[in-house]
Amino acid sequence: MTIRPILTAPDPLLKAVAADVEKVDGEIRRLCDDMLETMYDADGIGLAAVQIGVAKRVVVMDLDQKDGKNKPRVFVNPKILWASDETASFEEGCLSVPDIWEEVERPARIRAEYLDRDGKLQTVEADGLLADCLQHEMDHLNGILFIDHLSRLKRSIALRKLAKAKRQKETA
Ligand code: GNR
Ligand code: NI
User: Fold this and answer.
1) Per-residue pLDDT of the chain (172 residues; tens, 9 = 90+)
2) Is there a contact between 8 and 96 (Cβ–Cβ < 8 Å)?
3) Catalytic residue numbers?
4) 163 SS3 class
């Protein structure tokens, strides 16, 4: 397993629309393993393949890392089948937009289908953090970042903060 570098905004690769996976084979499983290791190393709860520059519809997630027991999840070609009219607001962060946290409003509950690590079609009913995180990750697959849901002013402040942090890292 390999920890891969995580792309950060405004990297144009983060705007790419990812392609469906044709077959969940050994190469995809290896990609999932690299993504999980990269996600754990970066202390994230989710990661989309586009964030490591791979434009494929693959997402990994682990919302239950606290108690020392990892519960890795893999979602290939995830698709929303239904979303509630009711919305919920979560404070979101993103490994591709480091150190910026903002409230984002999204449907509170969703039903989605996806292929698991064995290529089997699954459906999931999600609410709470799982629903929020799944929508955040599915956005990545369509080239959308959580800051794209903010007002133009908040987004430009976030991007400016990010650019400044990058400059400071370069000159440190
Ligand atoms: O680590 C992450 N935390 C998080 C918190 C609230 C809502 C979404 C997320 S996902 C983020 C990791 C990431 O950037 N995934 O794409
Ligand atoms: Ni993200």
Assistant:
1) 899 999 999 999 999 999 999 999 999 999 999 999 999 999 999 999 999 999 999 999 999 877 678 899 999 999 999 999 999 999 999 999 999 999 999 999 999 999 999 999 999 999 999 999 999 999 999 999 999 999 999 999 999 999 999 999 888 7
2) yes
3) 137
4) helix
Answer yes or no: are the C-beta atoms of 97 and 158 closer than 8 Å. yes
Q: How far apart are CA 38 and CA 155, in angstroms?
A: 26
Sheet strands side by side (includes 121-126): 46-48, 58-61, 73-83, 110-115, 121-126
Q: Where are the domains of the chain?
A: 12-171
Nearest atom in ligand 1 to the alpha carbon of residue 51 is: 16
How far, in Å, from the CA of 118 to the mean position of ligand 1? 25
* pTM score of the predicted model: 0.97
> Is it true that domain 12-171 has CATH number 1.10.730.10?
no
What residue ranges line ligand 1, CB within 6 angstroms? 44-48, 51, 90, 92-96, 132-133, 136-137, 140
Cis before residue 107, ω within 30 degrees of 0?
A: no
- The rounded distance, in Å, linking the Cα atoms of 163 and 139 is 22
CA of 82 to the centre of ligand 1 (A): 22
Report how far residue 145's alpha carbon sits from residue 163's, in angstroms, rounded to the nearest whole number: 16
